[in-house]
Amino acid sequence: MYASIINNVGRSMKFTTEEEFFFTNLLKKESYPAKTKLLREGEICQFEGYVQKGCIRIYYVNEDGFEVTISFAIEDWWVSDIASFHEQIPSDLFIETLEDTELYLLTPQTKEELLQAIPKFERVFRMLVQRNLTSVQNRLINTISKKAADRYLEFISLYPTIPQRVAQYYIASYLGVTAEFVSTIRKRLLTE
Asked: Domain segments of the chain: what residues?
């Protein structure tokens, strides 16, 4: 039942069977149907979630009322609003399931309990934050320096299964282009 999340955290640090048991006992498994808002702008994020199954989108609504997708989270990824969760401040983001989704959740309290009991988990979460920061930096550089077609190719290499799983306009909002542009790029790549 917990094999995938144990494998995920085990990439950064090895744990004993007892430590794994302690960790999994703190997790709360939740299932959500597609189109469930797990977090809304203005709410305080009360979870860090490991995606066991499903697809999630993190986005904000800009000053013109348009949804801008920041990232996606699929199986074997973690999802949260890091700033809101750690600082316990209102979020600027929305987190929404795009498919039926199963998550293993930690709350601020259960995460603190975990870190107090097994300090080795500090490394696991530090590594997750470092990977997230690397991803954000790469995305920023790509957005500034690459053409839209190249950004699409980079997106496909990062999220190879997403185009078959989500609406084209979500991908377009992630890339900062129109859905029509994404359609044109896809068609062109299929003919090459």
From this structure: 2-118
* Of residues 100, 94, 68, the one with CA closest to residue 171: 68
Per-residue model confidence (pLDDT) at position 148? 85
Total-model pTM: 0.91
Q: How far apart are CA 137 and CA 19, in angstroms?
A: 33
The string of pLDDT tens digits covering residues 116-145 is 999 999 999 999 999 989 988 988 888 888
C-alpha 134/C-alpha 2 separation (Å) is: 27
Looking at the DSSP assignment, which residues form a beta bridge with residue 94?
A: 59
**Which residues, 6 or more positions from 145, have their beta carbon under 8 angstroms from its beta carbon?**
none
Tell me the CA end-to-end span of the chain in Å, nearest whole number. 42
Residue 24 · residue 121 · CB < 8 Å: no
Handedness of CA 14, 110, 81, 87 (dihedral sign): negative
8 Å CB contact between 37 and 43:
no
Q: What type of residue sits at position 17?
A: T
The two structure tokens encoding residue 75: 């199986």
Which amino acid appears at position 117 of this protein? A
The CATH homologous superfamily for domain 2-118 is Jelly Rolls (2.60.120.10)
